[in-house]
Amino acid sequence: MFVSLSTFTIANDSNANVHEAFKNRPHLVDNAPGFQRMEVLSPQENPKEIWLMTYWDDEESFKTWYKSHQYQDSHKGIPQDTKLVPGSVKIKYFSVVSH
């Protein structure tokens, strides 16, 4: 199993809109080959921070999705007024050792 974790922090007051956009996402990734699930988390102490975790069968499946047009389309639902804290976007990749 392969896990991708993307984190970012919202700089303005659009976090409620961003949370709503994730709740109403178009689910474009759901049928991507190798996709297992997605979790969107926000720490209770900082609701402007978003952690997006996607779980895949393998890294190749993730890379194929990441290069696809559907990946680009999946980001169109982000509210237009969203501003991010500069330097807050971070991406990490994980291999699952045990679960």
From TrEMBL:
The keyword 4Fe-4S does not apply. Residues 2-94 form the ABM domain. Keywords: Monooxygenase, Oxidoreductase. GO terms for molecular function: monooxygenase activity. SUPFAM superfamilies: Dimeric alpha+beta barrel. The keyword Cell membrane does not apply. This is Antibiotic biosynthesis monooxygenase. It comes from Nibribacter ruber. The lineage of its organism: Bacteria, Pseudomonadati, Bacteroidota, Cytophagia, Cytophagales.
